[in-house]
Amino acid sequence: MKKSNLALALAAAFAGGPAFGQATVDQKLQILQQEIDDLKAQARRAAPTAQQPAAPYSQDYSSPLGRSLSLGGGGTNITGYGEMGYSKFRRSGDATADLQRFVFGFNHRFDERLTFHSEVEIEHAVVSSADNGEVAIEQAWLNYRVGDAANVKAGLFLIPLGILNETHEPPTYFGVMRNQVETRIIPTTWRELGAGVHGVVSEGLRYDAGITTNFDSGKLDERTTGIRSAHQEGQEANARNLAVYGALNYRRPGLLIGGGVFTGNTGQNGASNSVLQGVSARFTLWDVHTQYRLGRLDLQALYAAGTLGDADKVTAAILAAAPTPADAFAAPKTLKGGYVQAAYHVYKQGNFDLAPFVRYERVEIKQQEDPVNGLLQDPNNIERIRTVGVNFWVHPRVVLKADIQRYTADKSQDRFSLGLGFMF
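^ that's the sequence the OP posted. Answer follows.
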């Protein structure tokens, strides 16, 4: 491979923005260094001779960073990640093992400006009417790059709130399970249909803003906490009421500081297939977050809060429409939570990286109570979780995990867990 082709390959890999395997900056740099070494080795092996002229472009379908892009103007690559876990519950003695998710995606470059990004997720190994498995499209969007400061995107994409929602590959976070704040308050993995603009406006400062579909509060139910069950996931979504979002993130080597907001009415303007009539039910969710790496020390913190307007009317409408009495359903009116986390890389040698960590979380979901009808606050929705564990990377993209979790309110969730995660 010619040196000029090597440079063009590297430039092409990052021109499409953050969608190719959204790892953290430090991990991407580590992966990039390995990719550079691999490409140099390939270049030495493929050096043209008098009998073998150099190829006009190269393709490498093994690359996680889009190295498969053809220098001839187009190309497709495959990315993916997955995780599996084992949990032993302290109180019941039950144990479960699960292939929690396997995700694969196709990314395509039409030319130097226009790209396509996608992810398909399979949960819990088996998908059938009798099983808990699910297949879902997590991302399917187009991006047009006007320049570093302006990209236009449209389709089904991830909302830029929190840290995990956009960067949720198992090797990029600590712990066997995703943290509860970015599961119950920010409903990771959260995506919407819409359009937006994003880019880097100054060194390290990235913005992302747009308009998308919204939640439908008429779909809330008692089986999930928070707002998650109102998530429409691009599935024939009621779109009479849309939402707007915006996010700012500042990155420097070893540092991330950012935040975002999402807001819009979730009553869907009384859509014909919604139980809500004349109810605005405005939902607003915002967060602030930071990550800091100093030597071997990793620190991370996040706080998120949200409100659902007309929670009393939402509760009344859903209860009235239920074919059978709902089990103590009460719509959430406020959601908030935060966590702090610290990890220390005690051993780093080659690809090996061993890092114990601790995390403290608090989740508070206040519900619209109606004592007359027996609708009371679920005590398990005000929770504190303590996690102590260790991550062991055998490769920057393959990690083994173990942790112990203790819950303050719902003691049945206390557990010991083991996990394996990967990305490519």
